[in-house]
Amino acid sequence: MKKPRIALVGALAVVALAMTGCSASASGTDSAGGNTLTYLEPQTWNTLYPPAGGFYPNGGVLNQVTDRLLYQDPETLELEPWIAAELPEVNAEATEYTFKLRDGVTYSDGTPLDAENVVKNLDLFGKGDTKRALSVSEAINNYDRGEVIDELTVKFFFTAPSPGFAQAVSTINSGLLSNKTLDRTSEEFGPGNADKIIGSGPFVIADEKVGSELKLTTRGDYDWAPKARDHQGAAQIDGIDIVVVSEASVRVGTVVSGQADIARQIPAPDEAQFLADGLTLVAASTNGVNNSLSLRFNHPLLNDIKVRQAIIAGVDREKIVDTLFTENYPLATGILAKTALGYTDTSKYYQYDPAKAAKLLDEAGWVAGSDGIREKDGQKLSITFNEALPQPRSKEVVTLIQEQLAKIGVGVELFAGDQAAQDEARLDEDKIQVYHSMVGRADYDVLKSQFYSTNRNALLNFDTKTKTVHDTELDSLLDQVASVPTTEERQKASAAAQQRLAEQAYVLPLFEEPQVFGLRSSVKGFHTESIGRPSFYDITLGK
């Protein structure tokens, strides 16, 4: 039986439904600290260097303290001017972009956000700095250099077409920082340094308790929001207290009781609590690569396509979604969400068929052992999945898959551990053979970000030991997505790459992953950006 969809915020709609039922008397103004918003995060941030800000706790901070050249409307996904005074002038090959900048924009330390500063930002983000351990932004492709034309005009040059650049400069990965901030090392962008990270955004980081809390205050002279926002000028709240609360039941209970205003990552079983009077649930689309499994095909246990196909056929995705989630988590019909740019339906490759799975394993020479797990040449067919801590209910998802694959003789183990342990093991196929993850970005390039050999490399298509690419055809298709100039060409390249991923049984998409927020109905004006990160600029707190 299907479960009720509470709310959907994304490319198609921005809806926040106030529910009826049992009431709680507290409101944001009298229970959560006057006119200061209390926001609960399940994990702590680990860097405020924008190109490395994709981790949602990082982006949730960067989205409050930095501005970008362009703004992407979360409903239409259209680009609009922000710090740029107008949309860029782009040549036919998409290798040159010229931006006119707004006059009078400053950072919170009083320094100007001018052409020289913008070039310094994008030169760092587009090239990185190995000496300071600062990575290249995965959102920026084929970057060559920036050039100051005059105080308020910049021009960017690329070595090949870079059609995703305009959207890239609308993301938190291109959040603009002061000159002094840009001189910091990777370590100096990390915990313990939050109040030294200077942006031009509507909020300023005032204080930090490492690993547990950030205090943001409102910048009184802020006056350069995108025209599409609900209001202009300074934010209407005094500030934000971002508090790390890892236990989901505590996050839920704190908001329900009126002791906090908003919490992120409300588990599906707790959504019903937000049906009560005075509470609201918002599920924001992430518009990118779906919550999915990447099968690392170069590993000896997975290099036979029949084994990969068997694993895919042996997983009942619909049962997983119906058992663990609500209709806020639609069953995936491809590696990209339906709302993602470039989406192609490849659902025919992901049909549940345990009989077919068993037949494929038989054909591949894997026979049942005494414990029920198949064997071949003295080796057990036992594979290890990571626990994707940022993803909802990852451990429960893997546990269900473990039960399902056991029926066809495939053993599944879970690589447990905190985020540091998961990060360390992520690129080691001997530790993790099936990688559970997702990526949000409202651009065609999101597919390249996830699977390209020198980006996130989720499939481990690039061998760091031999410096070789295993599937050059896939890499070539992904490269085309980010390096052909027209929308039509990008759509064609994206469709071909998705087809390759499906045909080769490299991925198993599970569901379209939202960011689910629970909030007090007294919180008005809550929005998310185009992939579900919170934006508190328009919020007001009332009874």
UniProtKB/TrEMBL annotation:
UniProtKB keywords: Signal, Transport
Coiled-coil spans are none
Provide the leader sequence positions. 1-26
The molecule here is called: TIGR04028 family ABC transporter substrate-binding protein
Which SUPFAM superfamilies did the record assign?
Periplasmic binding protein-like II
Tell me the lineage of the source organism: Bacteria, Bacillati, Actinomycetota, Actinomycetes, Micrococcales
Q: In which domain of life is the source organism classified?
A: Bacteria
- Which family does the UniProt entry place this protein in? Belongs to the bacterial solute-binding protein 5 family.
Which residues belong to any copy of the Solute-binding protein family domain?
78-441
Keyword Isomerase set for record: no
The keyword Transport belongs to this UniProt entry's keyword annotation: yes
